[in-house]
Amino acid sequence: MKRVILSLAVLLPFHFSLAQEKQWEGKFEQLGTDLPTPNEYRTGSGAPGKAYWQQQANYEIDVELDDKNQSVTGKEKITYINNSPDVLRYLWVQLDQNVRESGTNTYKIQETSIRDSIPAKFATQGLGITDYDGGFKIKSVTDAAGKTLPYIINKTMMRVDIPQPLKSGDSFTFGVEWSYNINDRMQLGGRSGLEYFPKDDNYLYTIAQFFPRMAVYDDYEGWQNKQFLGRGEFALPFGDYKVKITVPSDHIVASTGTLQNPKDVLSKQQIERLEQAEKSFDKPVIIATQAEAIEREKSKSNKKSTWVFHADNVRDFAFATSRKFIWDAQAVKIGNKTPMAMSYYPKEGNPLWEQESTKAVKNTLETYSKYTIDYPYPKAISVHSASIGMEYPMICFNFGRPNEDGTYSDITKYRMIGVIIHEVGHNFFPMIINSDERQWTWMDEGLNTFVQYRTEQEQYDDFPSRRGPAKGIVDYMKGDKAFIRPIMTNSEQIMQFGNNAYAKPATALSILRETIMGPELFDAAFKEYAQRWAFKHPKPADFFRSMEDASAVDLDWFWKGWFYTTDHVDIAVDEVKWFKLRTEESDIENKGKKVKKGDLTAKEGEGKAMDFSNGPEEFSLVETDPRYYGEFMNRVDDKAIIQKFVDKNLYQVTFRNEGGLVMPIIVEFTFADGSKTIEKIPAEIWRMNEEKVSKVFVFNKEVTNVVLDPKEETADTDVEDNIFPRTEVPSKFDEFKDKKGK
């Protein structure tokens, strides 16, 4: 029997080689107890359980906006329905405007310092030196009979004590009267507020968080009454809204919901144009023209008009109002519905907004409906105001303003389209798939940014997407870990907010779709999650479990690495060895000689190029020892098997995990004749050794080059160690990087 020259480790799986003294990180261990235990409310599959429940809050609101002193005054009647199995003794109401009161914790917890030459505007915001009197002024809290209810205000939360415990299945109705002063966003920032136009002495108002809103009570943590500190956005229950909005009679109002009294607030011509827009699927119809808006800007009416809107099964309500508004709209075909895509904008937004805004709304509704559920609401609105991007059901406020002469750059155009897609997309995440933004920013921002990226790529040619492509996250991922936190971090503790909550989860999902699961499996699972949790309150575990349940792909290793750690992707080609089967001729030729060729270790060869110039190392295949057959009586044809390896080229490639994040291994081989092939190895190859693995590839042709992650689809942070042969000559790296378009 001939001696085995090549170790069986070359042909058999690489041995588990963890050092005895080192603690195992367990990157492939199941999430297990990291996720909440399934129960009758939330199942192990990620779907709502048979006993799933959620609360409902219905509103009747009367609100008036004063254009002379820039204030809002309102009263509301809230009917809160207890669908939980619990008895409630008090209710929690969100007072989000209180983030701007003088004693707000938001200012107190911000780190501040003094440096030379501080712009006055930033000193006002950062140091809280302002004459603005912010926050809700609560006039009364009463029951349905008008009797005063006891309440306690704790910063941005108000506890309302109810006369009798609210039993399961019962409802309680109470009223609140309030007012507040509208903040100037230019001076004070904010998700809503006013923008002033000095040239024509007019205001554009984007009004949100304008009424006391019920907090969420759910099966997961009871009341979600974490304080609003300015970053973690809003967790809200669904309900039906009837809202009356009183504004100057020369204003145009954009709002959540369906307008109930068009004849009272629109001209006959505007109503006709709106009816025309409802049948226009190819382009927008202008309902309120620029010429009409300019005329309205010239004088301020002392009369008032009340716009009445109804909205069913929404989690919030917002509106915008101005005498400066131009308004256009068109119909969009979504399944068996025809929602309206609308835009409202001042003349300062033209011509860009007339050309691109409603088109972007339409594109968003179509693409998001494809990946989630058919858009269920009657309209989606994009409102233009300076330096903002913020979302509410059926309406959002967006930046993107041309120069004063109407010209604009491609950067301005694409940033405007991008923010419109993103904010309109929030109708799906979290306005319909209603995650808890106060706790998990990534569940709405990250998922939404991922579908935004799909929309940009599918609806536009050569769109310069910022977030979503794998290579776009590389600089963040390889950064100083002292300034990075896991995606699974509460909104108020996140560092590098945009990268962490928007870009990284969007990139992770893109990699999951394109590289790990494939579009077909991913899309089906993602859509299943959306359909399961539409108009419900999902948590992270529901997303993780649904994606696995609907795809039959074990992704615990992926969630652990990308969402629970700050590891990054850096896989290196550590070593390449070339083998060929020893033939009888080579045995004779090399008799009496010690031959070891092809040991091409990237770490060796100080200052020398490591390549294939030494030729292959030879190995032998031998007849199978009978003991390897066990109880089997039949035998394999050893000679036939050995013959299959004649003239084959075997390449043992060793990969080293430098970044800690386990990922699939994607390798491109270039052959001597110039042809190429790509081999994809699932991430599970790392399951026995998370630091180093080897794999043998068998080809008919000789390999000249090996490149790891050739299309830069895994967010590998160091591509220079992805290449073999490697060289110390800089021009060689430069040549490769030029070819990669870096």
Automatic annotation (TrEMBL):
<dbReference type="GO" id="GO:0042277">
    <property type="term" value="F:peptide binding"/>
</dbReference>
<dbReference type="InterPro" id="IPR050344">
    <property type="entry name" value="Peptidase_M1_aminopeptidases"/>
</dbReference>
<dbReference type="GO" id="GO:0016020">
    <property type="term" value="C:membrane"/>
</dbReference>
<dbReference type="GO" id="GO:0005737">
    <property type="term" value="C:cytoplasm"/>
</dbReference>
<dbReference type="GO" id="GO:0005615">
    <property type="term" value="C:extracellular space"/>
</dbReference>
<dbReference type="Pfam" id="PF01433">
    <property type="entry name" value="Peptidase_M1"/>
</dbReference>
<dbReference type="InterPro" id="IPR014782">
    <property type="entry name" value="Peptidase_M1_dom"/>
</dbReference>
<dbReference type="GO" id="GO:0008270">
    <property type="term" value="F:zinc ion binding"/>
</dbReference>
<protein>
    <submittedName>
        <fullName>M1 family metallopeptidase</fullName>
    </submittedName>
</protein>
<dbReference type="InterPro" id="IPR027268">
    <property type="entry name" value="Peptidase_M4/M1_CTD_sf"/>
</dbReference>
<dbReference type="GO" id="GO:0070006">
    <property type="term" value="F:metalloaminopeptidase activity"/>
</dbReference>
<dbReference type="GO" id="GO:0043171">
    <property type="term" value="P:peptide catabolic process"/>
</dbReference>
<feature type="domain" description="Peptidase M1 membrane alanine aminopeptidase">
    <location>
        <begin position="362"/>
        <end position="562"/>
    </location>
</feature>
<keyword id="KW-0732">Signal</keyword>
<feature type="signal peptide">
    <location>
        <begin position="1"/>
        <end position="19"/>
    </location>
</feature>
